Amino acid sequence: MLKSEFILCEIENEVAVVTINRPPMNPLNTQVLTELAQIMGELEANSGVGAIILTGQGEKAFVAGADIHQMLELDHIGMMEMNNVSRSTFSKIENLSKPVIAAINGLALGGGCELTLACDLRISTEKARFAFPEMSLGIIPGAGGTQRLQRLVGQTVAKELLYFGEMINAQRALEIHLINKVVPAEELLPTAKDWAQKLVQKPAVALRMMKTAVNAGASVDLETALTIESACFGNAFATHDRKEGMQAFVEKRKPVFSGR
Length: 260
Hints:
This protein is α/β, with parallel strands linked by helices. It contains 11 helices and 11 strands. InterPro entries: ClpP/crotonase-like_dom_sf, Enoyl-CoA_hyd/isom_CS, Enoyl-CoA_hydra/iso, Enoyl-CoA_hydra_C.
């Protein structure tokens, strides 16, 4: 088990469960963000990990935003330095070669909601709540919220959430495709682990190429995106797992992937 002051990490059956451990609200400060980036980097390099689940400690909050107490003490330069740490940490999570599932166990507000947007998939409890309250603080999201949100839910809905900053429940989040699935609290981690186990059984290179094609293609023109897809397709096709998958299909058996 990997552990730092504010981040817990347990690895079992090729699935890492990373927990932000600053209850009850798990706010993000520079140390939490730095430790989170470090843990994610270690998991990226760990060949024994195929998928990652990210959650928060306790029942009240996944992450209820950035640490306002720290922000109040910062001048403009200090705040921009903190913002750069959060931005780089979220980008690291978004660009990991391995899938990351957010298991949202409670409030996901401001920076917490931005953190979920950097994950590949999002599962929440029925009691989870989501909001971007930055406007009421005289600021705007600074760690990707204005950009990732509109790419996920569309610009019109994104502007509604960002401009008004009102809290929405899990069902509304599901309806606008902010999250993938809503489950009872007791089923949150089991469901996330079930999804993660399904992912680690996939051919690793093809899964990595799929993520690269989707993520990289989302922010470029169609022709460039198609070129990216073609390159990723070629990389997947060159693997041993592609041969195994096709041979298994012809032989009407379950493929045995090796990650090569």
